[in-house]
Amino acid sequence: MCSSGLRQLGIEKVYYGCRNERFGGCGSVLDINECENSQHPRYTAIGGILADKAILLLRKFYICENNNAPNPKPKVRRIEFNKPERKKKRPAQSKMSSFGTIYKVTTFGESHCKAVGCIVDGCPPGMALQAEDIQKQLDRRRPGQNFLTTPRSETDTVTILSGTEKGYTLGTPIGLMVPNKDQRPGDYSETDLYPRPSHADWTYLKKYGIKASSGGGRSSARETIGRVAAAAIAEKYMSLAHGIEIVAFVSAVGKVKMPFLKDDGKNEQRDLLLSEITREKVDVFPTRCPDSETSKLIEEEIAKKKEEMDSVGGIITCVVRNCPPGLGEPCFDKLEAKLAHAMLSIPATKGFEIGSGFHGAEMSGSVHNDPFAFSGERELQTTKNDSGGIQGGISNGETIYFNVAFKPAATISLAQKTAKYDGEDGVLAARGRHDPCVAIRAVPIVESMAALVIME
User: Fold this and answer.
1) Residues near 62 by Cβ (< 8 Å), separated by ≥ 6?
2) Which of 142, 189, 423, 433 would be a feasible disulfide site paired with 152, CB 3.0-4.6 Å?
3) Which residue positions does the secretion signal occupy (predicted)?
């Protein structure tokens, strides 16, 4: 029935798909207004057929008055409603820019917008905090540090917008912002024609119906500035409150690996390295690989790929020391599951292993098990640590260590045969400034995501 006909019956509105508590399921709710007497409650139409008292009401208004008959034969008329047109499915909206619940970090910004940054919720009040505390980690991840990284020149200078007063945290949201200075969106004009191979151009377009034409947008590593800035605050708190230390380093690039990764189950060398490594020892080397011989080979490998206008992947090892026992939850929120989630959220990551990792699958239980022994420092501790400091999803007080695998950078200057958005074949030689090996600058990012997990 048309809307004017409904109004003649005193039916002012029809609400489609409303819950019908009496009959169950969904129906259409009629707002019935008998002009001067508005005493009728709402009635329900299920499948377009009126139910209950609404039938009698429509008989009174529609059948009797139109037929001029005081007592017409009882009959039920099917009232057909014009259903609203089904709207086209709208592309999904991006909702996943936050990490954590207790210590919650929300990042913002794209690779070539005016600024990037984050909002931090959950920082305890009363902690001394200056921009310099955050800047140290940002300097470690910024581009243009040496010939092995991207030539993009950014100072990545952080500004604290809110959440502190007189150098101390207030317990309110902390706003952090870093301006993008060296923007060159014109370097990405070809991405209007081509989805870059193994990049996020195609998948973002299919999910959101739009993509950033200048760089990778939210998929760019520039987004991780907010993570590193937020984690620097968390690290300071955990260091002061619990003495927790987090150190990451490059342990492999391409097929070049540090000796402990070549170990066939002997863990003395690994445990010694993980107990003594510091950020100062890591940063001495431009490759961030704390082994001089391996570092030289990594330099040669990266320089070779850079000359070939290609890229190469790598592995980062991360260690968390002085982590108290009891962190993590059984079943779905295990500590190693949280760490894996955090690490695999970093751009270009493709693998995660903790403790003995995949090598543990080749070991027997008698070799892999970590026996306990009494210690004067703690009630119990393990005599070795193939578990990686976590058992049953909960930290056991030992050193936590894990490896994160990074793929080769997807955007390379080497010409590649690929297809355009319109399906036409072509050749893409990407412009722009990119890291020949992303693992080197990802070291502080891995540390930061570990810090956010432990802080949470």
Assistant:
1) 9, 77
2) 433
3) none
Beta bridge partners of 353: 403
Q: Which residue is listed with tokens 């980062």? A: 316
Residues 44/27, Cβ–Cβ less than 8 Å: yes
Question: Residue 285 sits in which domain range?
Answer: 98-447
**107 and 59 in one domain?**
no
What values do phi and psi take at 349, rounded to 5?
A: -80, 145
Instruction: Kindly list the distances between the CA atom of residue 403 and the CA atoms of 49, 261, 343, 346, 400, in Å, as whole numbers in the listed order.
Output: 63, 10, 9, 13, 11
Better-scored residue on pLDDT, 282 or 21: 282
Q: Name the least confident of 137-141, 217-221, 410-414.
A: 217-221
Please check whether residue 82 is in contact with residue 4, taking contact to mean a CB–CB distance below 8 angstroms. no
* Number of domains the chain is built from: 2
- Residue 452 within a domain: no
**What angle separates helix 131-141 from helix 224-242, to the nearest 10 degrees?**
130
Tell me: do 313 and 391 sit in the same domain: yes
- Summarize the confidence of residues 125-146 as an average pLDDT: 91
> Using CA atoms, how far apart are residues 260 and 278, in angstroms rounded to an integer?
17
Q: Is 435 a catalytic residue?
A: yes
The CATH number of the domain where 152 resides is what? 3.60.150.10
Residues 299, 373 within the same domain: yes
Residue 226, token pair as written in the block: 């907010």
SS3 252: strand
Nearest to 176 by CA among 234, 220, 215: 234
CB atoms within 10 A of CB 116: 24
Yes or no: say if 77 and 67 are a contact pair by the CB < 8 Å rule. Answer: no
Helix (H) or strand (E) holding 243: none
Q: Is residue 83 part of a domain?
A: no
Sequence-distant (6+) residues with CB within 8 A of 124 are 169, 171, 237
Domain membership of residue 137 (yes or no) is yes
pTM value is 0.78
Q: Could you tell me if residue 269 is inside a domain?
A: yes
One domain for residues 297 and 348: yes
Q: Choose, from 112, 121, 156, 386, the residue flagged as catalytic.
A: 112
Q: Which of 121, 156, 187, 199 is catalytic?
A: 199
Please indicate, yes or no, whether residues 352 and 415 belong to a single structural domain of this protein.
yes
Residue 112 is among the residues annotated as catalytic for this protein: yes
Here the tokens at position 32 are: 């019935």
Q: Which helix (H) or strand (E) covers residue 374, if one does?
A: strand 372-374
Residue 416 has pLDDT above 50, yes or no: yes
Question: Which of 218, 240, 224 has the alpha carbon at shortest distance from 105?
Answer: 224
